[in-house]
Amino acid sequence: MNEYSIVFALPKFSFNDYINDMIIAIPAATLIGITIFLTKRVKNPWFNRKIIHLSSVPAVFMYLYVFKEPYAFFTYGTLITVLLVLHHLRKNEMSWFQIRGNLGEVYFTASYSVMALTMWYMRELAVTVMLFMAVGDAVTGLVRMRICRERCKHRTGSLAMLITTSIIGYVFLGSLGLLMAIIATLAERQQFIDDNLGVPLASILTYLLVTPLITI
């Protein structure tokens, strides 16, 4: 089995493990729901998105350390994604964090779901990228909000992301994680595609391209 098949292999489905994980995940899912509800009081949708992103961190660690399979995480993530898409399609967005014409929060939950399902046998990689998105991007946005009155891609935010993702990357993946942090920061800063797609795609691609060179 090569590196690529290890990363993207799907584990055997166990109904008992799935139900157990669905139940165990309720507190983490509830935390996200409560966060969404509480941020309704705040008028800045970009700020609210970052706080909601941070609320997903307990679920990420449960995926790494508690869950016995990926399908429960995938189910919750997919349900949230479908809910968000429906609000956009019906044009009744939850305006305190959803913005008409901007699907960033949809890409965020969809990326989580896909990574959780397809990278079960490389959970450290999946979790590293998820935390890049949840913590790194949140810190970036919050720092930039101190500089810019409107949404911007200021270099101070990029520096904050680089520092944050470097710590995350090194803890989980060592020196390769540091390289991924640099690439993720560049992917977040570019404006060609949404960073909730760019960061995971660039980070995972870096891992897949560099790992074979390291192991030669």
What does this structure look like?
The chain is about 75% helix and about 0% strand. The protein has one domain (about 5-215). The longest helix is centred in the last third of the chain and has 35 residues, at about 155-190. Helix 5 packs antiparallel against helix 8 and helix 8 (about 125-145) crosses helix 9. It has 10 helices and no strands. The chain starts with a helix and ends with a helix. The protein is an all-alpha fold.
Supply database-style keywords.
mainly alpha
Q: Which whole number gives the mean pLDDT?
A: 91
Could you name the ranges where pLDDT drops below 50 across 5 or more consecutive residues?
none
Number of domains: 1
- What is the succession of H and E elements? HHHHHHHHHH
Outline, from the CA principal axes?
globular
Helicity, in percent? over 70%
- SS class: mainly alpha
Strand content: under 5%
Describe the secondary structure blueprint for this structure.
Blueprint: H1 3-8, H2 15-24, H3 26-38, H4 45-55, H5 57-65, H6 71-89, H7 104-118, H8 123-147, H9 155-189, H10 195-215
Helix pairs in contact: 2-6, 3-4, 4-8, 5-8, 6-7, 7-8, 7-10, 8-9, 8-10, 9-10
Outline:
With 216 residues, this protein is an all-alpha fold. Helices cover 76% and strands 0% of the residues. The chain has one domain (3-215).
